Structures are given as C-alpha cells and as structure tokens.
Amino acid sequence: MKPASGLRLAVVGKGGVGKSFIAGTLARLLAADGRKVVVLDSDPVAGAAVSMGMGVVTDSMLADAAFESPNGWRLHPGMGAATIIKSRSAVGPDGVRLLQSGKADVGGMSGTWPSIRAFGQVTRRLASDGVLGDWDVIGDLPAGPRHAAFNWAPYADTYLVVTTAGSMSLVTARRMIRLARQRGAEVLVVASRVESHSDTSAVAGWLDLPVFMSIPTDDAVREAEAGGLAPFDVAMDGPALQQVRALADRLVPSRKVNS
Ligand SMILES: Nc1ncnc2c1ncn2[C@@H]1O[C@H](COP(=O)(O)OP(=O)(O)OP(=O)(O)O)[C@@H](O)[C@H]1O
Ligand SMILES: [Mg+2]
User: Fold this and answer.
1) CA 231 to ligand 1: nearest atom
2) Which terminal CB of the chain, N or C, has fewer other CB atoms within 10 Å?
3) 225 lines ligand 1 (CB under 6 A)
4) Which residue blocks in the chain are alpha helix, DSSP H?
C-alpha cells in the first residue's frame, strides 16, 4: 500500500490542554492553503468544530452507515471510508471537513451508538484501505489515554502529544507517549498554554524529549472560542496562532513555499 502523502495525526493529551484548539486551527490553516483536510472527532463533547468556527455540531453523522452483523458491526455495502468522509462530513470554511462520531445529549450516548460503531469502522478502513492518501487526516481524541489505548486512531502515523507544564498533564503525556510508541507511531511533543520559557523547559525535562512546538497562553483564543468564533478568524496575529502556524510549517514544510 502506498504510504499517505497527507498528514495522519492523532492529537492527544489530558483534558483541557488545548487539543481541539490545536487540531481545529491546524486544520483551518491547511485548508486555507487549499489542502484537503478532515478532522475526525471522536469526543462525546463538542470540541474541534467550535475551534474551526463551525459552532457546536451535534449530529450523529453516521447513524445509518453501519449495521450489526453476527460478526460484529459492518459498514453498509458501498460505504467505504472515502465515500463516508466525502459524503457525510460537515463542510466548514475553506472546505475543511469534520467527521464526528456523535455527541452525548440528554439521553447520554445510547442514541449515538450506531454512529460511534460506524465511526470506528471508518477509522480502521482509513488505516487499512489506504484511501484519501493525499488528504490531511487529523484526529481530535478525547481527553486521557483510553481512546488511544483502544486504538481510536489506527490511521495515525504521528501522535501530537499535547501537554501543559502541569504535573497531571505531564503524567498523561508520558502514558500517551508509551502508547504511541507501542503503535509504532512517531511522537511529537507540543507544549501548550505555556506561560514562560521555563514551562517549555519543564515539559522537555520531564518527558526527556525535545518540544516540537510550544504554544503560549493567549487570552484571545479562549475569548474567541467562548464567543463561538474560530481563533483562526479573529486571533490570527496573536502569539498562539503564530505558533500553530509554525507547527503547520514544520509538519508540512512545503507549506512555507506555497503560502
Ligand atoms: N493557547 C491557549 N491560550 C489560551 N486559551 C487556550 C489555549 N488553548 C486552548 N485554550 C482554551 O482552553 C480551553 C480548552 O481548550 P481545548 O478545548 O482546545 O482543550 P482540549 O484539550 O481539547 O479539551 P478536552 O479534553 O475537554 O477536549 C478552551 O476554552 C480554549 O479556548
Ligand atoms: Mg477537545
């Protein structure tokens, strides 16, 4: 199978460290370059859609895409990963796409179960079928190591392990790094919500790894998202956005030439 030329990322880390902001903003930046980008959001709580400026998207996009067979859940015939991503995802600014498993509602997660099972099938097929190789696929995973442990991002060849300098965040990051390595994925550490240079040094020292990118705390990010706006649209000149842009440049070096 030909290796993908597009990104295959899983964005992971402890709750609230900035995963969705980074995943969503990276997606917007790459889509603005004209790249084909999909964010795969398996979080039962709203996240990347808000960061991308698409508001709170609650649809279970894949509720009728799979069925339960005696051998487990299957996608309906004719529904491969590429077809589903192209036909079922929500389209945002610059053509960026969002495919989500489904969000919890007043009834909890039970109503979204078929969609979640179909979403799992899509992620596995994406990994095994080699489709959409030229697309950037960015997985915004829910907080903590559980989803990575259960391999919710089998397509990912690179894990962006996002952490603040807080001790619990670093403990989670360490676990995520072990899991990613067990999967044979490359690990890139992103220090997030950094207040000073010493925060970045603390992350590097504690994890004994270089920090691939350091994203400062930027109140404009929180304010934008609290107001339902994408930081990409309203805080582009701020320090956090500059660093996410630098992250995009490092992940896709040709981007620099083209933009
Ligand atoms: N660099 C930053 N500066 C300031 N605020 C930030 C920054 N990054 C994220 N935030 C804010 O922190 C909060 C959590 O961010 P985000 O939702 O991206 O984290 P998360 O890791 O995806 O959380 P969860 O685990 O709940 O999905 C949001 O209010 C967001 O606007
Ligand atoms: Mg999130």
Assistant:
1) 31
2) N
3) yes
4) 19-32, 48-51, 81-88, 113-129, 146-149, 167-182, 197-207, 219-226, 231-234, 239-251, 254-258
Distance CA 9, CA 138 (A): 5
What's this model's pTM, rounded to 2 decimal places? Answer: 0.94
Other CB atoms within 10 A of residue 244 CB: 27
DSSP output for 90-138: EE-GGG-EEEE----BTTBTGGGHHHHHHHHHHHHHHHHH-TTTTSEEE
Task: Write the DSSP symbol of residue 77.
Answer: T
In ligand 1, the atom with minimum distance to the C-alpha of 225 is: 31
- Give tens-digit pLDDT for 215-250: 999 999 999 999 999 999 998 899 999 999 999 999
Find the 2 Cα to ligand 1 centroid distance in Å.
35
Question: Which pLDDT tens digit goes with each residue over 94-106?
Answer: 999 999 887 666 5
124-129: long-range contacts, CB 8 A cutoff, minimum separation 24: 124/154, 125/75, 125/80, 125/81, 126/81, 126/85, 126/154, 126/155, 127/154, 127/155, 128/154, 129/80, 129/81, 129/82
3-state class (DSSP) for residue 219: helix
β-pairing, 136-140 with 158-163?
A: unpaired
Q: Say if residues 174 and 207 touch (Cβ distance below 8 Å).
A: yes
19 touches ligand 1 (CB under 6 Å): yes
Question: How many A from CA of 65 to the centre of ligand 2?
Answer: 25
Ligand 1 within 6 A of CB of 42: no
User: What fold does the segment set 8-247 form as a domain?
Assistant: Rossmann fold (3.40.50)
